[in-house]
Amino acid sequence: MKYGRIIQKPRVKFFEVANGVFAGISPYRGISWANAGFINKGGGLVYDTFFDLFHAREMREAFKEVSNGGSPAYVVNSHYNSDHAWGNKVFEDACIIMHKEASRERLTENIAWMDSVIRRGKNSPESTSGERFFAAEFEGFDLEGVEWVLPNIEIKDDINIRLGDMEVMIYNVAPAHSDSDLLLWMPKEKVLFAGDVVFNGCTAYSEEGTLNWVKVLDRIIDEIKPEIVVPGHGAICGLDFVKEQRDYLLNLISEFNKHYNDEIDTLSLTKQIDISRFLHWIQPERLYVTVDILLKSKRGLPPLPIWNEVPAKLEDMKAFLAGKYGDQIKPWDPMSVWQE
């Protein structure tokens, strides 16, 4: 893929994927290592703001470099998750746009708790297994100064924004990965910022969302037809990966229905699901989390995982997959997403 300007910062690399359109790509080390981006057209627009203020400030610096010191007029959050919205404070003078469900969903995430987990670290004897798991995943972040910034505009319908000579479409596609998913589409440039609707290692949060997610991916493939896709995590891609993700979800749904029964537990069910075509994905053991959510949804139970139980289950799944597939599982290189 050919890029225009490339701006290298310590934490984020910004690739110009179309004239004035920059994808901000983080090294993909696991949970919360998210992407974002900005458009230097008209008043300017930022799509997502990373997990902490340090990453967001690098994007603000990059925006200023290409806009002669300007500030973006708009921020659009792809959904509520912390790794896509907790840098908003850096851009709080902008008009912040979110899905109408984002403020409700964000109540499941606690800034003070996450900050304390990071500060105690992954080896703290005072932490639970779930907290040590997250501390390891969150290494490299600092939540100093982070606070939730209320949106100026909450939307439930598709909207258009004019940025100079560029038309930007914001599509409500929820529920999919979450109940607050918004796509950012530039029809003339054929560039789609997809948030976590597209990403390697995808996890759903409801049975309804998973089923609708496939329809959303079909819409991207058959109707929107982007040439460049900026995913919520991982490398810049095209429709080939969108199709692969759709196949992953279809396979998951098919295998889940094939092996489910009213007595089976999540771990046993996850081990019966064939993911041999997706062993190159980051942390393929993450499958356990989505299966757990689907199983609980099917049984009418609260779908969110019990995080103190998850680390041991993931380690069990990792060992199981290693025993079953051996060297077919390749080590993941976090820096591969920066390849030009």
The order of strands across the largest sheet is 1-2-3-4-5-6-7-8
Largest sheet: 8 strands, mixed
CATH homologous superfamily (4th level) name: Ribonuclease Z/Hydroxyacylglutathione hydrolase-like
Reported by name, the CATH topology is: Metallo-beta-lactamase, Chain A
CATH first level: Alpha Beta
Determine the structural class based on helices, strands and strand pairing: alpha/beta
Provide structural commentary.
- This protein is of the alpha/beta class and 340 residues long.
- 34% of the residues lie in helices and 19% in strands.
- It has an eight-stranded mixed β-sheet, covered by helices on one side.
- The longest helix is centred in the last third of the chain and has 21 residues, at 239-259.
- The protein is globular and about 60 Å long.
Which properties best describe this structure?
340 residues, Metallo-beta-lactamase, Chain A, eight-stranded mixed sheet, five-stranded mixed sheet, 10 helices, 19% strand, NDM-1-like, Beta-lactamase-like protein, EC 5.3.3.-, isomerase, Metallo-B-lactamas
Present the secondary structure layout.
Layout: E1 6-8, E2 13-18, E3 21-25, E4 36-39, E5 45-47, H1 53-66, E6 74-76, H2 82-85, E7 95-99, H3 102-105, H4 111-120, H5 129-137, E8 153-155, E9 159-163, E10 166-172, E11 182-186, E12 191-199, H6 207-224, E13 228-233, H7 239-259, H8 266-272, H9 287-298, H10 310-325
Helix pairs in contact: 4-5, 6-7, 8-9
Catalytic activity: 3',5'-cyclic CMP + H2O = CMP + H(+); 3',5'-cyclic UMP + H2O = UMP + H(+)
Protein name: Beta-lactamase-like protein
Domain Metallo-beta-lactamase: 33-233
